[in-house]
Design a protein that fits this description.
heterodimer; A: mainly beta; six-stranded mixed beta sheet; four-stranded antiparallel beta sheet; 12 strands; globular; B: mainly beta; seven-stranded mixed beta sheet; 11 strands; 0% helix
Chain lengths: 116, 113
């Protein structure tokens, strides 16, 4: 069975500082990995995805993530955050297979609080 | 291209009633997935439809059901509502489902009193 663990429920950071949101996954098969962001009273917006190939993935709004197969991690990073990055961030995993169609397994979420 | 739309955005129901939520996917997307989001349980997969067929189902009771129409629009129904069904219900569409990135709608906030 697949699972996702987001290691921090809340991450406070000052504006223009770097940030890392941590995500570890568990799966016995090859995975696809995603990071989504949710602003208050909105749905989820895709930040970036790892399907295959280069382990460093760049996404929207200056975010990037690195897939580490040996450590089963997919941490999200941004070198300099803005107030507007304050939101909840979700790591999600799926794999290609008939038993898993259309199903994303999400972590519990990390609230990023950017302070001025 | 228009995004995923969900109606209604907010809904208040009484215990024991039933409710139907609607989701219109992005044009050309054939897979629609539904999720329940609550503060306690987080985001949980309900089911996925593709070409009018349910292909995958999460671990929810039979009170939760859905369907998909020939134009890929999907509806979700919850019968005999319980207080614990209060949640944000999100639908997401993708091209084929498996491994594709999912695009989410804004959600329907259901409150059961």
């Amino acid at each position: 069975a697949q699972s996702v663990t987001q290691l921090d429920s809340q991450v406070p950071v000052f504006e223009e500082a770097p940030v890392e949101l941590r995500c570890n996954y568990s799966s016995s098969v090859s995975v696809y990995l995603f990071w989504y962001v949710q602003y208050p009273n909105q749905g989820l917006q895709l930040l970036l995805k790892y399907l295959s190939g280069s382990t460093l993935v760049k996404g929207i709004n200056g975010f990037e993530a690195e897939f580490n197969k040996s450590q089963t991690s997919f941490h999200l990073r941004k070198p300099s955050v803005h107030i507007s990055d304050t939101a909840e961030y979700f790591c999600a995993v799926t794999h290609h297979g008939s038993s898993n169609t259309g199903k994303l397994i999400f972590g519990q979420g990390t609230t990023l609080q950017v302070k001025p | 291209k228009a995004g995923v739309t969900q109606t209604p955005r907010y809904l208040i129901k009484t215990r024991g009633q039933q409710v139907t939520l609607s989701c219109s996917p992005i044009s050309g997307h054939r897979s629609v997935s539904w999720y329940q989001q609550t503060p306690g349980q987080g985001l949980q997969f309900l089911f996925e439809y593709f070409s009018e067929t349910q292909r995958n189902k999460g671990n929810f009771p039979g009170r939760f059901s859905g369907r998909q129409f020939s134009n890929s629009r999907s509806e979700m129904n919850v019968s005999t509502l319980e207080l614990g069904d209060s949640a944000l219900y999100l639908c997401a569409s993708s091209l084929q489902g498996a491994g594709d990135e999912q695009y989410f709608g804004p959600g329907t906030r259901l409150t059961v009193t």
